[in-house]
Amino acid sequence: MSQSERLVLATRYRLVSEIGQGANGTVWRGHDELLDRAVAIKELRLPDNLAEDDRVVFYRRTLREARAPAQLRTHSIVEVYDVVIEQGRPWIVMEMIEAPSLEQLIERSGPLPPERVAHIGRALLDALNTAHKAGIVHRDLKPSNVLLDGDRVVLTDFGLAFSSESASLTKTGHFMGSPAYVAPEVAAGEKATPRSDLWSLGATLYAALEGRPPFERENVMATLSALANESTPAPQNAGVLAPVITGLLEKNPTRRLSHARAVDRLERALAGPRSGRRAPTPRYRLMVVIGLIGATVASCGIGATALIVGMMRESPGPSPTATASGPASATQAAAPPGAATSTLVVRARTDSCKIFVSVPGAAMTVLSDETLSMGEARRYDQPRINAVVYDASACDVWVNGRQKPAGKPGERQNYTLNKE
């Protein structure tokens, strides 16, 4: 056991095991012995050759990293509990989120589908909106700072964040941030703004869709040169998200998508193309009607029998969830096999039943990310499940044997389930 692993910070936070290391320190799994809960503890190490003035700046930046998310109480930003000075260096105590980062997921699984990326982008826009309204710019949004805990998306690491009310802690001539995700105007030396965070969001979503950020090159200087001199490459896998990505990656910040417009475009992508969807075509059957026409054909002087051929619209028949006693809205759909004993069962009532189902944990397992055809069903027996149904009116859902009420068209439903 190392000396650090024997530490108890501020007489209450015990270091349990190392989670990972970075350029500026180590992240530990810890235990708050006062409140009896798991915590994450970020140990920040100062370089040995750091001058006294720089050491003061480092401490101030550390306190800012803790204060920024502490002011922003929202589901999409990591919660900070405490800051402790121990052994001459700062330690930040945060909520423990045992989930992979977006960077790890991209490295493990490759590019993500547009539906998943849209959900991630929507949550990050909420996080940025909360931060920007409080006057805080993150300045280092990138896949490694985004944690994916099932359906929850969490923005972390506000180490480079600054408040509009605080003095800048970055020295002139010092580049701060991640070159592959930094906005062009910031790389050129301008002050970071909420619009530059939106660029970083665009680069992050681009990386999620394509497997790498748009301007990443073999080294820092080549990356910055590409950022300054090359056109933004069009994403190949974005699908309906292409207008969002290209709008966020507009190099001129005044023409870049605003937060509100980005939200609107992402909402449209999540909802799907409803306004342009054609109404179902009525079914017809050919009806041959034989009628006796009592007219006399003048030229022949005989009676005639005519065949009258017409198209009659066929009755549409009952809806997939309707019964003989009433319409679908007033009745429960017949449960598919296994619904009574499964944690979750989803069956498509239309061809727009889009679902995302995963098992949370340190290594999240994606079970389904698909659109089901009408009548198609999926059954899940895992003891813990996170699920997203993107259109609650398009799917029938059973949770632990009980059918959930049908939702409204376009309504998204999120489920965090434990097997009963």
From TrEMBL:
<keyword id="KW-0808">Transferase</keyword>
<feature type="domain" description="Protein kinase">
    <location>
        <begin position="13"/>
        <end position="270"/>
    </location>
</feature>
<keyword id="KW-0812">Transmembrane</keyword>
<keyword id="KW-0067">ATP-binding</keyword>
<feature type="region of interest" description="Disordered">
    <location>
        <begin position="315"/>
        <end position="337"/>
    </location>
</feature>
<dbReference type="InterPro" id="IPR011009">
    <property type="entry name" value="Kinase-like_dom_sf"/>
</dbReference>
<dbReference type="GO" id="GO:0004674">
    <property type="term" value="F:protein serine/threonine kinase activity"/>
</dbReference>
<dbReference type="InterPro" id="IPR000719">
    <property type="entry name" value="Prot_kinase_dom"/>
</dbReference>
<feature type="binding site">
    <location>
        <position position="42"/>
    </location>
    <ligand>
        <name>ATP</name>
    </ligand>
</feature>
<keyword id="KW-0472">Membrane</keyword>
<feature type="transmembrane region" description="Helical">
    <location>
        <begin position="284"/>
        <end position="309"/>
    </location>
</feature>
<dbReference type="InterPro" id="IPR050660">
    <property type="entry name" value="NEK_Ser/Thr_kinase"/>
</dbReference>
<protein>
    <recommendedName>
        <fullName>non-specific serine/threonine protein kinase</fullName>
        <ecNumber>2.7.11.1</ecNumber>
    </recommendedName>
</protein>
<keyword id="KW-0547">Nucleotide-binding</keyword>
<comment type="similarity">
    <text>Belongs to the protein kinase superfamily. NEK Ser/Thr protein kinase family. NIMA subfamily.</text>
</comment>
<feature type="compositionally biased region" description="Low complexity">
    <location>
        <begin position="320"/>
        <end position="337"/>
    </location>
</feature>
<dbReference type="Pfam" id="PF00069">
    <property type="entry name" value="Pkinase"/>
</dbReference>
<dbReference type="InterPro" id="IPR017441">
    <property type="entry name" value="Protein_kinase_ATP_BS"/>
</dbReference>
<dbReference type="GO" id="GO:0005524">
    <property type="term" value="F:ATP binding"/>
</dbReference>
<keyword id="KW-1133">Transmembrane helix</keyword>
<keyword id="KW-0418">Kinase</keyword>
<dbReference type="InterPro" id="IPR008271">
    <property type="entry name" value="Ser/Thr_kinase_AS"/>
</dbReference>
